[in-house]
Design goal:
- A five-stranded mixed β-sheet has the order 11-12-13-14-15.
- The protein has 15 helices and 15 strands.
- Helix 15 (about 330-350) links the parallel strand 14 (about 320-325) and strand 15 (about 350-355).
- The protein is of the alpha+beta class.
């Protein structure tokens, strides 16, 4: 039934509606996000970019687990409220700890600085320091390219409060924007954003347990368990491989539609679905998980389970796809694999070549 809910075996609605149904699209690697949406909707990478930067029906922002996601523009207030309500448990060194008042000052400074323009991180640093004070620019955060200023500790807060999202790249540089410039008024407000987020998760990924919901969000398990208990009659307990799991009450069942799909890095289906031992059976657990983490490897999905890995390399208008199934493919499945590779090329707007053999590319970490 998850395959249907993820529009892998069912007709997909618009890009925005698809992003809504799968609870956002992971976009740390933008080409992977474009393909995640493309394989469900048939829309090309160009169409996804137009939805972001022309139609503004999608918004790129900080989302689940603090990583970059694409959300429907009209749902941004919901996601901000839901993610802002999460019971994170983290201990930071004093030099990285912000007081609530400091967070408020940074968020206000970011919102004002981005009100009418797109700014790079360096440009935004100058504006935040000008408005909040020199303390906000202290270089205290170790980063892959040196040290980041303290204000960047509040970027997720600014995103959750509707003061910051991503703007279009300026050459190779990332820019930021104030989403109020293009996000429409929304009716997606919620009196219980944490609870509604759990219901959305179960609608997309159930049956699932509170512990799996907590893992999806990178939050402590106890609040998730208490939440499932509080939701009570809205949930239905079922048995999955002899263990208890939960669905939203009244969730319809679906007949499995056999098929083969090439899922990109960090695809929502791979990252959010459990139990892992059923989704990644046998060799898949060794080859398609990185230290037990899902999403770091592009996978071949056959009848809903991971049965291989694949890799793509684009050079100009050419796309080389290498696919490594973990089982011997029937003639029918080989034709499906060839068709899927051709489809990936169409979505990426490139001429594709397919090699069936060992994938030697390392996991994306």
């Amino acid at each position: 039934m998850r395959l249907n809910r993820h529009f892998l075996t069912a007709e997909a609605p618009s890009l925005a509606a698809t992003a809504s149904s799968i609870c956002g699209v992971h976009a740390q690697v933008m080409t992977a996000a474009e393909l995640s949406l493309g394989i469900r909707t048939g829309e090309t990478a160009t169409a996804v970019r137009e939805a972001l930067w022309t139609d503004r029906s999608l918004v790129k922002t900080f989302g689940l687990r603090g990583t970059i996601h694409l959300f429907p523009a009209d749902e941004l207030p919901f996601w901000g409220a839901a993610l802002g309500s999460l019971p994170y448990s983290r201990s930071l060194p004093p030099e990285l700890t912000l007081s609530p008042a400091q967070v408020d000052d940074i968020v206000a400074a970011i919102g004002a600085a981005l009100q009418d323009t797109f700014l790079t991180a360096d440009e935004l640093t100058g504006e935040v320091v000008k408005r909040a004070g020199a303390w906000a620019g202290a270089l205290v955060m170790p980063a892959f390219d040196g040290m980041w200023p303290l204000w960047r500790m509040a970027m997720s807060d600014a995103a959750n409060r509707g003061a910051l999202c991503f703007g279009p790249n300026r050459g190779r540089k990332v820019t930021y924007a104030n989403p109020s410039r293009w996000v429409p008024a929304s009716s997606h407000a919620s009196e219980d954003p944490f609870g509604d987020l759990a219901l959305r998760y179960l609608a997309s990924y159930g049956p699932a347990t509170p512990q799996q919901f907590a893992q999806w969000l990178a939050i402590p398990k106890r609040p998730a368990m208490e939440l499932f208990s509080r939701l009570g009659d809205q949930l239905e307990e079922v048995s999955l491989e002899g263990k208890s799991a939960w669905l939203v009450r009244g969730t319809p069942g679906h007949t499995l539609v056999p098929g083969l799909h090439l899922l990109p890095l960090f695809d929502a289906y791979t990252v959010g679905c459990h139990p892992r031992d059923l989704l990644f059976p046998g060799t898949a657990a060794e080859r398609a998980l990185a230290r037990g983490q899902a999403g770091n490897v592009a996978v071949i999905l056959i009848d809903g389970t991971v049965q291989g890995v694949w890799h793509q390399k684009k050079t100009g208008k050419k796309l080389a796809v290498t696919a490594e199934p973990f089982l011997k493919l029937s003639s029918k499945m080989r034709r499906l694999l060839e068709a899927e590779a051709e489809r990936v090329g169409l979505l990426a707007e490139a001429a594709v070549s397919l090699t069936i053999g060992e994938v030697t590319a390392r996991a994306h970490l």
